[in-house]
Automatic annotation (TrEMBL):
Belongs to the pyridoxal phosphate-binding protein YggS/PROSC family. Its cofactor is pyridoxal 5'-phosphate. Residues 23-214 form the Alanine racemase N-terminal domain. Pyridoxal 5'-phosphate (PLP)-binding protein, which is involved in PLP homeostasis. The modification N6-(pyridoxal phosphate)lysine is found at residue 31. It holds the Pfam family Ala_racemase_N. It comes from Pacificibacter marinus. One of its GO terms (molecular function) is pyridoxal phosphate binding. The keyword Lipoprotein does not apply. Keywords: Pyridoxal phosphate. Coiled coil: none annotated. This is Pyridoxal phosphate homeostasis protein. It comes from the Bacteria. CDD domains: PLPDE_III_YBL036c_like (cd00635).
């Protein structure tokens, strides 16, 4: 189990770049991991977890939440509009708000229930056609739209293109957040979380470096 190693590396990098380590939160990404591995990390005292599928999270987290108090669950994968209500019920934070229809659905349900998870807007910093997220050029307008809907937008999230060096994408996300007065930056994964911390990440999302590699059969 790599939890302690990753916690130490997060803390070291924060200190190295002159940040308070408490301003960087580690999301343990438990998607597709066997329950026994997730349980080890829970037993070690970690409480912040990320899942990328609503359905998968609904199958395992209600039970874990009964057994371990104080779990904070983050949705880091794409959300279809017919899953928004379920996602709002299950997750404390949603990182993948990426289009008007989702924003409107979130606002409508929040109006009904009086509750809404903390929200991050996903930005497609590499403008990749296959990737979710608003384009950098549309980000300011979309952030404004979400705020006009009274949604609790806390920050921005990105997944840089796999084949590029991530630094300029992290810098771009930080710049868009700053000019919009947003403090939260969800960026950095197993391979690049230190670089993300140097660029201001407040949440890093680390899966395989904590849990070991994923087997993707269950994901097919
Ligand atoms: C799977 C996933 C991660 C974690 O990836 P690792 O490389 O295993 O750390 C982070 N963010 C998102 C959006 C993911 O889907």
């Amino acid at each position: 189990m790599g939890l302690k190693t990753i916690q130490d590396r997060v803390e070291k990098e924060a200190i190295r770049v002159g940040r308070d380590p408490k301003t960087v939160q580690l999301i343990a990404v438990s998607k597709v991991q066997p329950n026994a591995r997730v349980e080890q990390v829970l037993s070690a005292g970690h409480r912040i977890f990320g899942e990328n599928r609503v359905q998968e999270a609904a199958g395992k987290w209600p039970e874990f939440k009964k057994r371990f108090s104080g779990v904070e669950l983050h949705l880091i994968g794409p959300m279809q509009s017919n899953k928004v209500r379920q996602a709002m019920d299950l997750f404390d934070v949603i990182h993948t708000v990426d289009r008007p229809k989702i924003a409107q659905t979130l606002a409508r349900i929040a109006g009904e229930t009086g509750q809404c998870p903390r929200l991050y807007i996903q930005v497609n910093t590499g403008a990749e056609p296959q990737k979710a997220g608003v384009l950098p050029t549309d980000a300011d307008a979309f952030i404004k739209m979400c705020r006009d809907l009274d949604l609790p937008v806390e920050g921005l999230m990105c997944i840089p293109p796999a084949e590029e060096s991530p630094a300029k994408h992290f810098a771009l996300l930080a710049e868009i957040a700053k000019r919009n007065g947003l403090d939260g930056l969800s960026m950095g994964m197993s391979g690049d979380f230190e670089c993300a911390i140097a660029h201001g990440a407040t949440y890093v999302r680390v899966g395989s470096a904590i849990f070991g590699s994923r087997t993707y059969e269950a994901d097919a």
